[in-house]
Design goal:
The complex is a heterodimer of chains A (about 110) and B (about 110). With about 110 residues, chain A is mainly β. Chain A contains no helices and 11 strands. Helices cover about 0% and strands about 50% of the residues of chain B. Chain B is built from no helices and 11 strands. Classes of the chains: A mainly beta (about 110), B mainly beta (about 110).
Chain lengths: ~110, ~110
């Protein structure tokens, strides 16, 4: 069945770039998503990429998609303490539902 | 920016009781969803809803669950007889169109069944 895999933790120094990786299984997914969840908060849509794109940039965020390897990454440039959160990758194999990764907790070191 | 709102933020109930979780989707959105996240586990799809009927539901969404859009603004999830394992964070989401628009989520309702 469909599955989305992410590493559970990533630790970076403030000011460095963070790269969060994700692999997925369903090549028919139309969109792939990155959501951010801060402690005690909901799921905030960060960005998404259409499956026929390789890259999408939005201010400090860069999403790279390798369809051949079914690999998605999120790069956060100049990581700040406010970027501390859990980042979820999700794919959309059907019209009506998302399949989620377990989330990567981003830890910022001063 | 318009947002999805959920109430209450935290609900505590006894096993066997009925609960209703409430959501107000973004006003011009047409598709509505419920997801849940059991502590320490992945976010799981429960149900999607369009044009006043269920579009798709997961195996989790059994006869104990139901959804309703009682008026033009609210979207509710009812659990008829809660079990301990229903304890989770329940997220409501909405999207303008299923294929071309992303899902926007509320802040969730933390349901604790004792």
């Amino acid at each position: 069945g469909e599955d989305v895999e992410q590493s559970l933790f990533l630790s970076v120094r403030e000011g460095d770039s963070s790269v969060i990786n994700c692999t997925y299984t369903d090549s028919s997914s139309t969109y792939l998503y990155w959501y951010k969840q801060e402690p005690g908060a909901g799921l905030q849509l960060l960005t998404y990429i259409f499956s026929n794109m390789d890259m999408k940039q939005d201010q400090r965020l860069t999403v790279l998609l390798n369809k051949k390897d079914k690999h998605l990454s999120l790069r956060i440039a100049d990581t700040q303490t406010g970027d501390s959160a859990i980042y979820f990758c999700a794919e959309s194999p059907s019209n009506y539902q998302l399949i989620w990764g377990a989330g990567t907790k981003l830890i910022i070191k001063p | 920016e318009p947002e999805v709102t959920q109430t209450p933020s935290h609900q505590v109930t006894q096993m066997g009781q009925e609960v209703i979780l409430r959501c107000v989707p973004i006003s011009n959105h047409l598709y509505f969803y419920w997801y849940r996240q059991i502590l320490g586990q992945k976010v799981e799809f429960l149900v999607s809803f369009y044009n006043n009927e269920i579009s798709e539901k997961s195996e989790i969404f059994d006869d104990q669950f139901s959804v309703e859009r009682p008026d033009g603004s609210n979207f509710t999830l009812k659990i008829r007889s809660t079990k301990l394992e229903d304890s989770a964070m329940y997220f409501c989401a909405s999207s303008a169109a299923s294929l071309n628009s992303p899902l926007h989520f509320g802040n969730g309702t933390r349901l604790t069944v004792t």
